[in-house]
Amino acid sequence: MKWARGIARSLSPYDMRPFGDAALAIATRSAEAAGALGVAIRAARIDGVVDVVGGFDSVVVIYEPGLTDFDRVAAQVRSVTVRPPEDTAAKMVALPTSFDGPDLDEVGRISGLGAAGVERALLRVTLRVAVLGFTPGFAYLTGLPRRLRRVPRRPTPRTSVPAGSLALAGGHAAVYPQSTPGGWHLVGRTDVALFDPESPPYALLAPGDLVRLRAVAPDDLRPLDPEPVKRPLLRAPSAVFSVIDPGLFSTVQDRGRLGVAHLGVPRAGVADPVSAALANALLGNPADAAVLECTVSGPTLLCRTETHAAVVGPGAGVRLDGMEIAPGRVFPVALGQRLALGSSGHGLRAYLAVRGGFTTPAVLGSRSSDRLAGLGVGPLASGDELAAGHAAGPMADHLVAGFRAGSPGGRKLRVMVVGGEEAWAGLLDRPFEVTEASDRVGLRLRPTGDPPAAAVEADTGSAGTTVGTVQIPPDGHPVVLMVDHATTGGYPVGAVVITADLGELGQCRPGDTVELVVVTAAEAAAALRALRRWLDGAVVGPYPVQAG
Fold first, then answer.
1. Is 85 among the domain residues?
2. Are 57 and 8 in contact (CB under 8 A)?
3. β-strand pairing of 92-98 with 210-215
4. Same structural domain for residues 374 and 317?
5. Residue 99's CATH number
6. What value does the mean pLDDT of the chain take?
């Protein structure tokens, strides 16, 4: 996060500021203070708070707007009791490392040490874990030699960094536990797994642990990203659907993983929470029931048990045994029928809900598939079987007319400013184009017209992030964080998309034109109230509505 100039030093640990309309940020004097405060806030179990993420000089508290608000959360945070970290013996972890990273020569040039000197310097020091964040098991390591502390982040982040990569940036070292996007300089790699979602405490490293690097030959390391192994097909004794064709990118999603962001685990979940909520509401499902998120073109499914379904998405194409079905309404599906979802329409994604919700295996409390960390069952495959839960409430019949009927291609996203003027000034009064590199991790924007001024202070110290955070890398091309985003980041932050527009954010597709419109906290709250009023009256029922 990028604070306005001079503010961070003047804030006490209990001075807070809004971080969008669904989070607050607290400045601290050190990573140790941030860690202790984060532990205390999580232990307090504040109503409406869903995650607490610590950084090097801040804590971000994420809450559910509508259930609570900034003032209430801030008051409760001020009342927590912060205790010093327990004085326990830190463990020493040795990482076998091959120094063959693609940026080793560049780091040697920046530091003045040369490639061989970078290796020698890293082998001589003992590193210490400061905080966890970014992705599951990602540990920020302090203790670099002075010359290596001057290595910055890359001007433009890579869209994919191999798992096990040893990297340097902004005064810290780290190992990427998973293959993810990243902006650090890569100097080597290891084959030690740093995160296991099946085995508590899940992350190998914890704050305070010590790390030494041990040089090995490249051939001595096994690949952490071996040739992809096809996962076993999903099997369900009482399947409601079998997958004939999975479509382009179809995944099961729910509200996501809550309460684990401090371990570096993204929330994930549905990219368009509005469409998913409407699909569940039509079928009488709980709001957090799992749905099928279909990107661009959806799957073809064979019905194995008669049920009811609904598809919601702006202009989505739906066919049942070849007969066209209008989106936004409940329809019965009989044994043996084929349900096909075609184009997602004006948006990028459409949502298929089934009566009772989908019941794929859960990981860390969620059925969601996370593209960044690889948690969950992942994209559907031909031959998968999908089961559903028990029916819950009464079904509605259809959505009211006019759902997202606006013209496609041009979108406005309302944002709340959180950075200093240097960070956000270039975001306003200009259109951006959504690039092909966008996905569930981040919406990458390309300025149209004159090139933007480069962002200032590229290395701001890693801090917590939320869905909708607008980061500005040094090249000035904003990245809007999506649901599979890294839990912490070090690029300057200019603004955060408001909660009421997260559904619109989830429908932005490559080639769309996007404008960022600044609103106040009061306007963001009013927009969310208006959206919820609309949602309350958006479904018509009960099913089936009788003619006349």
1. no
2. yes
3. parallel
4. yes
5. 2.40.100.10
6. 89
**Is residue 257 located within the same domain as residue 386?**
yes
Whether residues 423 and 356 share a domain: the answer is no
The set of residues, in sequence order, having a beta carbon less than 8 Å from that of 322 and lying 6+ positions away, is 338
**Residue 260 belongs to some domain of the structure:** yes
Secondary structure of 90-131 as H, E, C letters: CCEEEEEEECCCCCHHHHHHHHCCHHHHHHHHHHHCCEEEEE
Q: Are residues 394 and 428 in the same domain?
A: no
Q: Sign of dihedral through CA atoms 184, 190, 191, 196?
A: negative
**Residue 191 contacts residue 97 (beta carbons within 8 Å):** no
* Contact residues for 152 (Cβ-Cβ < 8 A; gap 6+): 110, 169, 170, 458, 459
Give 358-395 pLDDT, tens digit per residue: 999 999 999 999 988 889 999 999 999 999 999 889 99
Whether residue 32 is contained in a domain is answered as: yes
Pairing relation of β-strands 49-54 and 58-63?
antiparallel
Residues 462, 170 contacting (CB under 8 angstroms): yes
378 and 249 co-located in one domain: yes
The pTM of this model reads: 0.86
Give the CB-side neighbour count of residue 138, counting CA atoms within 13 A: 34
